[in-house]
Amino acid sequence: MAVTVEAPLWVLASGLQSESVEAQPLCDAGGSERDAVDAVLAPGLWACWCAAGALLVCCWCAADSLSCVTAAGGAEDQIMQVPQGPMGLQDRLDSSPVTASTTIESLPKSVKRRVNTLKQLQVQCAHIEAKFYEEVHELERKYAALYQPLFDKRRDVVSGAVEPTDEECEWQSDREDEEELAEELKKKATVEENKEAASTEEDPKGIPEFWLTIFRSVDMLSDMLQEHDEPILRHLQDIKVKFSEPGQPMSFTLEFHFEPNGYFNNSVLTKVYKMKSEPDPSDPFSFEGPEIVYCEGCDIDWIKGKDVTVKTIKKKQKHKGRGTVRTITKQVPTDSFFNFFNPIKVSPDGELDEDSEFTLATDFEIGHFFRERIVPRAVLYFTGEALEDDESFEEEELEEGEEEDHEEDGDEDEGDYEPKA
């Protein structure tokens, strides 16, 4: 049987221990028939007089409950437990993680109703935002028509159909030493012109391997590029972006224009990306703008034996009865950039395995990159200037992240820092 007792609390006043009060136990904790004795230190009021003067010091002291349990016969060690008081409970409540569900559940019913009203307003905002992006798409379509004559001129220069004038070829370089070397370059140019006149080699037409160079330079595209793709991409003359017409579902089409070649009969290969710009009724708050939801390629009319998306393998088969061996050939898929025009087909239920989802997401990313970066800024990717900009942006992000890591490491190290004497 547990016995609850009270014991005095020592009080220190003015740095002196009171000698007039002697601690006395009110109960003997021994006894073979007792399983445990709980000693509780209760709040006490003590008064002591200082010897230097008649100063009465009153101290109110509140102590947490202390429970002491002793096993019979002393066979087990004592276990000291200090239950939390009211302040400890408040600390636990304050330190408990706050989530959206716990926040809402803790609100009064009248406040919950008002929060629901705000959610209804937020859904209306999402629908207005969807209309905004639809108008942005129309604006893109409008300005695409203004860009196209310039892109057509770019195509003609790249293919060699048009030779630019001297005025069009002038470009002010940013190099500081260009003016200093101008005279020297003129002298060297004269010598080179004489050599070229004597040479029987013809000038290259247009800008050779313009698009192939871009494919090789951009990591996202070079990962798709195979050695057997390169001879075909040398015939690529232009890449265009076409936007859907007014009143049609939002989409854009990539057009890859090829000159006649010995690989396929198509002059244009297309890839259509269909987009959605409306909140999902089941999750309207996830809407963040237009997203690609489906893509569709085209059939490539390969010349016999020139299909680079498949490879031919030979297999030997042994007849079970006669034991004769025969060799058969079969075609199996192989890696190629031109698989880009044969994307994964999404089933009506929309269920894909993890690998297919990753492949489709990568396809969407590549299509968006063609539309937003490659086509509008092709010459800068050919020269590498756009690549330098992209790398600088990534390096800046990385440096900022490293600085944050160093700051966190520094904070941790400061706690262990011990100054030298």
From TrEMBL:
Transmembrane segments: none annotated. Residues 183-203 have a biased composition (Basic and acidic residues). Residues 164-203, 386-421 are annotated as: Disordered. One of its GO terms (biological process) is nucleosome assembly. It is found in: Nucleus. This is Nucleosome assembly protein 1-like 4. Keywords: Nucleus. Its main location: nucleus. Residues 164-182 have a biased composition (Acidic residues). It holds the Pfam family NAP. Belongs to the nucleosome assembly protein (NAP) family. PANTHER family: TESTIS-SPECIFIC Y-ENCODED PROTEIN. GO terms for cellular component: nucleus.
